[in-house]
User: Fold this.
Amino acid sequence: MVEDAQGNIWAGSLSGLLVRRERGAKAYVKIAGLSSINNLFFDQSGQLWIATNVGIYIVRQPESNPAPIKVAGMEFSLENINAYQGCQDQAGVLWFVTDKGLLRFDGTHWRKSKPKPATQIFQHSAIACAHNGTLWLGDETGTVWSANEQDGALKINDVTPSLLLDQSVTALFEDSRGWLWVSTDAGIGVWNHKQWRFFNQESGLVWNDTDLNSFYEDSDGSMWVATSGGASHILRPESLFAPLQLDVLVESIARDGETVAHGQPVRLPWSSSPLNFKLAALSYQNRETLNFRYRMQGLEADWSKTSVPEVRYAALPPGRYRFQVAADNPAMQAYSPTAEVEVVILSPWWSTRTFYVVCGLLSLMLLYLMHRYRVRRLVARQRLKELQARERAYELEASREEERKRLTREIHDELGQHLSALRMGVSVVGLEFGAKNPSLQGKIERMVTLVDGTIKVVRNVVASLRPSALDMGIVSALEWLAQEFRDNTGIPCSLDVREENIVLDDTRATTIFRIAQESLTNISRHAQASQVEISLNRKEQYYLLEVRDNGRGFDTSVQKRNRSA
Assistant:
């Protein structure tokens, strides 16, 4: 739909119908029936150009003779080309985007434009001529170029914003402000050569899918946008680029279905359950292009991006973190400041310092108990060895005593009897023959003396092996031992026994006797004593044997050092 210089409205349809409504009239008048009409525009001379899917038409005299005439090219055929759109630049050159490429008509000659760089391959579907001579081109992939003629070639520059990619560009338009308007099947875009803005149904547009030749600038500067669902009227286009305040906040924090108190910092015990952050951005335009950037500082260094207003972290390890989030809306080119929440995950009880201290103390206690147990085992083993040694010594001593008893009996019974018989025999010989032979009598007397000495030696041996006094009790044995010591050494030796009747078994009596005997032997050899005392008294359920002397002693510590050396 276009308006001529007289205010008449011309319109074409995809069915090929060309109509006109006179200024002030209420009805359209059919002008012609053509093939599918894609685009209409008037050139600077007032001629109407019509782009169809089978070629290009011109109405040279719209007032007097409105019949369309098909344009024929002299340089190459324009038959059956599909002309999508066309426009006239400031220099008066006509440009058409077709299925055969970009065509240029300077009023005399038609030619195909050569893009620069030549490696670019274009399948243009939309075109607009700017006031400064620039061409705006668009295609079905959402790409937008600016183009300028230089040295017979068309130098192109890609100005496509990221949000326009993969959207089909259906129309381009430059308004009186020099802004570029782009219509697509998903909304419209506006570029003021500094910023892009994108609008769709969520922004207030009546419909997302816009039509061919969808833009019209009114005399007051407002813009009309034609869509498949109706027309939208933008009354104040300047407000589209007003600064947009975008704020983001952490709306809630939850774990295990329970909302966490939203304080600073958020302190939580460790758990394997995920921690959910629900986000909110205070923006009501183009929310489909709203994105969130986030990271958990202390856990990750890089930012992550999502369009879903919810972030989940599973099983955060113990530590101190800062959850940072920012929102951006590329369609509105709005960016929020970074919001952050400090999160402290407390260590589980098995990772706390107290637990480590307790474990350390328990370990030390365990080591101490193990040491005590080992020491006790060693002591018990040593005691067992000592007990076994004592028992073995006792057994050996008992065996010796038994051997002494046996030897004593044999010596006393056998050897004593033989010696007694020998003395009696010698004595008989002396009585029978001594009187007649004096020399023989002297020899017999010497033999009797020798036999008596031998008998005495035998008695001493028997007494040293086991005194017969032991058979009469321990007290009698100690009295005999003290008397023997006085007789053999000449050292006074007294015996103190306060209990008159001491009854001990043979083993204990023999042990006490041997201890006293060994003590007196050591005194006689080393002590150089002049007085010895022996005492045997009861102490509770035991008997205590003490042997004292006034002789010289020795330093037990020196003896121990000498033994260890």
